[in-house]
Amino acid sequence: MASFDWKTIAGPLAKVGAGTLGTLIGGPAGGAIGSAVGGVLAEALGVPATPEAVGGAIAADPDAAREALASRDAEISKAIAEAELSMIREVNETYRLELKSESWFIKGWRPACGWMLCVVWGVHGLAIGLALVRKDFEVIRTIESLTIFYATMTVVTGVAAWGRTKEKVQGVAGASVGGLLGGLINKAVKK
């Protein structure tokens, strides 16, 4: 099966008023969502199921694209929900495998990220405090370069903590997807 970059249709979708769909396809999960929705869009537009063909059809006839999107709204919503549910299942399966592992290295990578982030924050906080006392503003100017590191590690730690808490509450085996998003996904897939 060929792999396509469906993120390229995010812009054309936004131009015909499907900005939310374009944002989903252009976002981090865009490959999976685009693959799921791409076939529906291609069929509705009467073109081959490739990003180039779908993007070209949307650009060539925006009105027909709007009609096609409106007529297939339920199918598109279901395809998005199924793609998101599939991604959630894969993540949950990864969590389950990690928890079953006998290796501390495998089980402990998420907690290790949290502890390392705390250590880095602590050391960095002390370094900033010392730089302020010494009036060494060059050190303080370098803080900006750590923004991506802090953002990435904070997100990883937050998601890991949230996921681990959810695992503890629901138990490891066979728990259904919860929360508002989970409820919407479960509802859409059952249609």
Explain this structure to me?
The chain has helices spanning about 10-15, 20-25, 30-45, 50-60, 60-70, 75-100, 105, 110-135, 135-140, 145-170, 180-190. The chain is about 80% helix and about 0% strand. The protein folds into two domains: about 5-70; about 95-190, no CATH class. The protein is built from eleven helices and no strands. By secondary structure, it is mainly α. The model has no long low-confidence stretch (mean pLDDT about 75). It is flat and about 65 Å long.
Radius of gyration: 22 Å
Distance between the amino and carboxyl termini:
27 Å
Give the overall pLDDT as a whole number: 77
- Mass-distribution shape: flat
Low-confidence stretches: none
Structural class: mainly alpha
Q: Give the tally of β-strands.
A: 0
Number of domains: 2
Strand content: under 5%
N to C succession of SSEs: HHHHHHHHHHH
As a percent range, the share of helical residues equals over 70%
Topology:
Elements: H1 10-15, H2 19-26, H3 30-45, H4 51-60, H5 62-71, H6 73-100, H7 104-107, H8 109-134, H9 137-141, H10 147-170, H11 179-190
Helix pairs in contact: 2-3, 3-4, 3-6, 4-5, 6-11, 8-10
Q: What is this entry, summarized?
A:
Helix content is 78%, strand content 0%. By secondary structure, it is mainly alpha-helical. The protein folds into 2 domains: 6-71; 93-190, no CATH class.
Highlighted features:
11 helices; 191 residues; 2 domains; flat; mainly alpha
